[in-house]
Write a structure and sequence with these properties.
Number of domains: 2
Number of strands: 13
Number of helices: 2
Strand order of the largest sheet: 11-12-7-13
CATH superfamily of the largest domain: Ribosomal protein L6
CATH class of the largest domain: Alpha Beta
Length: 185
């Protein structure tokens, strides 16, 4: 059995999990509502505040989907109950970020032009720019997958580079530094 797949998913108070006949799992909670279509070969059942994910046999493809769908459902339950939060830090001289409109980030990252990035309505965004501190973007959402995709998109504009350490990084991320050229020996 899959170690991840056979673990039961505890459903906290205030969260409801429903499974439709088409094998679509819907999770509702205080932070929102999420849905996920599950492969018809994977069984999902909810009883006594616990969700179980089962598989019919031990074929390789079904084994891989067993753990996948259990993890996706668990992430949805955690997301609608607690939510997910990511903090991006802009490290570099002149790097600025501000919210020009609701759900639109204005990024100044050393290019000749500013970058405007529209964000999905499911994500709450906040920016912090304090004197002598790196600008921060705080993103919150119930959908872990969507939040990760948006963070990866923002980060792709300026990935952290190893020589000076400049770029967009997650708060607390350690960037391995390289020595660079040694000047005329």
């Amino acid at each position: 059995m899959s170690r991840i797949g056979k673990l039961p998913i505890a459903i906290p108070a205030g969260v409801t999990v429903t499974v439709s006949p088409e094998n679509v799992v819907t999770v509702k909670g205080p932070k929102g509502e999420l849905t996920q279509a599950v492969d018809p070969q994977i069984g999902v059942s909810v009883e006594d505040g616990v969700c179980h994910v089962t598989r019919p046999n031990d074929e390789k493809e079904i084994r891989s989907k067993h753990g996948l769908y259990r993890a996706l459902i668990h992430n949805m339950v955690v997301g609608v109950h607690d939510g997910y939060k990511k903090v991006l830090e802009f490290v570099g001289v002149g790097y600025r970020v501000e919210l020009s409109q609701p759900q639109v980030l204005n990024l100044s990252l050393g290019y000749t032009h500013p970058i405007y990035l529209g964000l999905p309505k499911e994500i709450k965004v906040e920016t912090k720019s304090e004197r002598n501190q790196n600008p921060l973007v705080i993103l919150e959402s119930a959908d872990k997958q969507l939040l990760g995709q948006v963070c990866a998109k923002i980060r792709s504009f300026r990935k952290p580079e190893p020589y000076k350490g400049k770029g967009i990084r997650f708060q607390g991320e350690v960037v391995r530094r390289k020595a660079g050229k040694s000047a005329g020996k």
